[in-house]
Amino acid sequence: MKPKLLIFLLFPLIGFSQQNNPKAPDSLKISNVFNLGEVIITNHQNKDTLNRITSKAMESQNKMEVSKALNMLPGVSLTASGPRNESMVSVRGFDLRQVPVYMDGIPVYVPYDGYVDLARFTTFDLAAVDVSKGFSSVLYGPNSLGGAINLVSRKPSKKLEFDGSLGMINENGYRGNVNIGSNLGKFYVQGGFSYLDRNSYRMSSNFIPTANENGGQRDNSYRTDQKISFKVGWTPTEKSEYAIGYINQQGEKGNPVYTGNDPLNTLLLKPRYWQWPNWDKESFYFISNSAFDDKNSFKTRLYFDRFKNTLDSYDDATYSTQTKPYAFESIYNDYTFGGNLEYNTKIIPKNDLKIAFHFKEDVHRENNLGEPVRHFIDNTVLIGIEDVYKVSSKFTVIPGVSYNIRKNNEAEDYNSTTKVISDYPDAGASDAFNAQVGFFYQLNNQQKLGATVSQKTRFATIKDRYSYRMGTAIPNPDLKPEKAINYELNYTANLFEKITFQTALFYSSLSDAILSVSNVEPGKSQMQNFGEADYKGVEAQLNYAVLENLSLNLNYTYIERKNITNPNIHFTDVPNTKVMGTLEYSPIKILRLIANAEFNSPRFSTSYGARVPDYTLLNLYGSGKISKNFSLDAGVNNIFDRNYSLVEGYPEEGRNFFVTLRFFSFN
């Protein structure tokens, strides 16, 4: 879609918005959460700035990707898979295989490897993003070893609501989106469209050119992402609700080549020339909550999720021919279907009891162009119970248990020499037991204390068990689940009516960790249940209303990860220290200025010790209302043009700016 067509689609809504109430955007950030899509243990999460990001916070600093929005939270680190140009996060040291991603409580991670490229998930139509760390509800389902991430969509609260934007990103990118909703009492409808396109991103002027990258505009760093979302709901009674939703994401991206200097990295002499012509996801879902009476209800989530992906490997940097042995076209055509049923009863005094059943079937189909399709099918089942026991008005205990089982129903091997497909031997079923308990005490109106312990597991993915990793690995279908016991002590205080302070101490003990073991055969590795490890750290956040028009937010994370099994193998991608500060100033009601600074300590990029140095970024943002229904946002990221990397050999963007025109309209 071209910029002119995008503007044409949005222009009628902009014109209509001039007739409506200008104060609605502030209320939108509070009242637009689709509560049916939340998965929360207690009712305090909507006030928890340690673990939730609202649409208002995301918009204020122009966080267009879920990964960059999550990076605003303590305990969360922005990470990347440089060789695949994927944007990810780590939560208290756990990666996205161990902290699965959900949309309105429905799993959206990729069936094959359990990951998801969070740069493909834009924030334009979200109401909030919730993060559960360690102690996450068993109602999420299996594999939440280190927590869970839930993207919560919008729900309209007025008869007619609009908001949207048009914007420019540097000189070669643009964005646009529109959200429209209507709530007619018992019926509501919500829809959204967004488009994000960039030809490339500009590297720092401090970057030193290499053989594979001359600087300036980063080669092969283009991206295009389009998303359509739609939801219709019915609320026959105050406590019953039924919603049908649809999401269609279409993306494509380039994959910048390795430009580092690590002599042990094979990409130094053999760079990858990759492009992803499509990274497409389509989801259909039904969510309901039926209240039988004041004490009993039944919640349902049913879903079908389709993932199509193509990766093209080319001969060279012209990206025009595929004749060399390492060139290929890889095709994934996956789907997942499943659901969960949840019965909630308050019939026992002081108890809020939930019993849940989950079923999920993952189907992975892959082939290179010209080869037959290989099939892999996993079935996963969970039965769980969770209770919120109000011991007193101040003391709450929350226990939870679940039993998980995963069965592989089909796994096919392919011999590229004989061109024959055969079945892997039946590996049988794998099961795991999870249990957790949390204690929460309200010390007084201003202070509360919590302590939690949880034993969680993660099943090995299809890729963990069956991938040859381009001829460098040996499959291991018999991998067991990895396990973690997570401990946390947390404290929240509201002081002097101006300060909110939240902090958490955490410790995780991992066993049967799934790690890549080198040279199982000469030159070949294998994923094995090999490791034991400890993660420990602290996170804290301070919100201070300095003046009526001046506020300060500070957050801090410190984490240590120790590989007990083999201390010489380093854990990668996560800095020991992350500090972020945001100062927001509104000299007049129609103007808001924000200064943001972020520090990250050095981090390992490889298990053998290659590192990237620490970095500090400074960003400035401004937003001003230019009429009743329009505001103009502008900002500069990485003001000092720092040349920095999240992964060695893959430099991040240098100084960059954006300008965005926002419009809003509600009745």
In a few lines, what is going on in this structure?
The chain is mostly beta strands.
Number of domains: 1
Distance between the termini: 30 Å
Structural class by sheet pairing and helices: mainly beta
Main sheet attributes: strand count, strand direction, barrel closure: 22 strands, antiparallel, barrel
The level 1 CATH classification is Mainly Beta
| CATH topology type | Maltoporin, Chain A
> Approximately how much helix is present in the residues?
under 10%
Q: Return the CATH architecture.
A: Beta Barrel
How would you sum up the global shape?
Answer: globular
Protein name: Iron complex outermembrane recepter protein
Subcellular location: Cell outer membrane
Family: Belongs to the TonB-dependent receptor family.
Main location: membrane
